UniProtKB/TrEMBL annotation, chain A:
One of its GO terms (biological process) is amino acid transport. Its main location: membrane. InterPro entries: AA_ABC_transptr_permease_3TM, ArtM/GltK/GlnP/TcyL/YhdX-like, MetI-like, MetI-like_sf. Belongs to the binding-protein-dependent transport system permease family. HisMQ subfamily. The chain crosses the membrane at residues 20-44, 51-77, 89-109, 190-209. It comes from Limobrevibacterium gyesilva. One of its GO terms (molecular function) is transmembrane transporter activity. This is Glutamate/aspartate import permease protein GltK. The lineage of its organism: Bacteria, Pseudomonadati, Pseudomonadota, Alphaproteobacteria, Acetobacterales. It is a multi-pass membrane protein. Residues 20-209 form the ABC transmembrane type-1 domain. The complex is composed of two ATP-binding proteins (GltL), two transmembrane proteins (GltJ and GltK) and a solute-binding protein (GltI). It comes from the Bacteria. Signal peptide: none annotated.
Automatic annotation (TrEMBL), chain B:
GO terms for molecular function: ABC-type amino acid transporter activity; ATP binding; ATP hydrolysis activity. One of its GO terms (cellular component) is plasma membrane. Belongs to the ABC transporter superfamily. InterPro entries: AAA+_ATPase, ABC_ATPase_HisP-typ, ABC_transporter-like_ATP-bd, ABC_transporter-like_CS, MetN_ABC_transporter-like, P-loop_NTPase. It comes from Limobrevibacterium gyesilva. Transmembrane segments: none annotated. Residues 2-236 form the ABC transporter domain. CDD domains: ABC_HisP_GlnQ. It is a peripheral membrane protein. This is Amino acid ABC transporter ATP-binding protein. Gene3D superfamilies: P-loop containing nucleotide triphosphate hydrolases. SUPFAM superfamilies: P-loop containing nucleoside triphosphate hydrolases (SSF52540). It is found in: Cell membrane. Keywords: Amino-acid transport, ATP-binding, Cell membrane, Membrane, Nucleotide-binding, Transport.
Amino acid sequence: MTHFDLAYVVSTLPLLWDGMQTTALLTVISLAGGLALGMMLAVLRLSRLRLVALAAATYVNLIRALPLLLLIFWFYFLVPLLVGRPVGGYTAALIGFVLFEGAYFCEIIRSGIQSVRRGQIMAGLASGLTYGQTMRSIVLPQALRNMLPMLLTESINLFKGTALVYVVGVRDFLTAASVTGTRDNTLVEMYILVALVYFLLCLAASLSVSRLQRRYAV
Amino acid sequence: MITVENVSKSYGATRVLTDCSTAVARGEIVVVCGPSGSGKSTLIKCINGLEPIDAGRIVVDGTSVADRETNLPKLRARIGMVFQTFELYPHMTVTENITLAPIKALKRTRAEAVKRANTLLERVGMHDYADRYPANLSGGQQQRVAIARALAMDPIAMLFDEPTSALDPEMINEVLDVMTALAQDGMTMIVVTHEMGFARRVADRVVFMDQGRIVEDSPTQNFFEQPASDRARLFLSKILHH
């Protein structure tokens, strides 16, 4: 172990910054994809058509029963066998994240919508609004506020979870730090730095959401 | 203006309405009463199509409610409804609650809708609360806002579903006073309520329901002085002597 050297840490920053960009991009794309998929699944799960609701529920329960790493391995190792060419670590990981987060976001969105009292829908409909208008103006704003803490928790999980791309050779923030630390024999500095950065980013996200919540609190 | 003909309805195997028929003329005030679970609330929710019916026919101002061709949002925009649990939108101010449907469903401008909202708030005695959120109002105040919200659509009739049942006793009168004033202005009203004093003072007719059937449908004075059925007599004796 070497002593903590600030000048050294600064010198590693460009490489780490590249890794952080990969982590950020993975998080943003997976979040967008996961939310879109989750929204769709939630609508399907709440459908009055039994078969549609059942299909969505089956997907959600199946995915939630599997380790995320297994999903990534499927797309990295098994799908190439089917399509006849390599998928690539980055793509495999992204697909895995989106499919996985979609199931979790589905449940968060569904419980958020269900947390709004049925009487609110009745009131909207009774006042002459269409079902779509009632959902948009009355149900979803309330549902969104109710699910904000859960959405944040899941997004933070996803952000941290992207570190799994290590196993399929994608150089994210943590991987970049590991590589640097191994090369320069500075793993202690690197891992402390990584922990600090993850901690500060997650803390900032939590604080901004609780502020948002206070602003929109009734 | 509103006719209910031989309406029946079940939830699965449970029959909630059996062969109900009645009619409400323009300007008439009808109170619907009866023990809990007798189908009163379901019946008035059928009138604006919030609950579908299995058999029979409901016609509102010439429009058949259960008809496939009927534009339900358009029909509902003409019938005001007030709920037991108020159902104000918690994420909107009082004014926003009242102007939402006029702006979205009637395509009124915001300025028009706000002006009308202010007039109505004045009428229900809530004009000082226009910018408050529902959570900062008492139950009675919330219900008065809910009445203003329903009136903002300039309805041809108003449906009240136990409007005072969720209120503390000292707040019941402020809501009943607003309803009485509305009745005196000639509004057509169907009111599900246990407030027999209100029924006696304001109603033209009383519909008494039991186990999903309309057991009695008579002018108010007759209902209170000489109820035709034993069931209504028993109900009145229980509800009036406590």
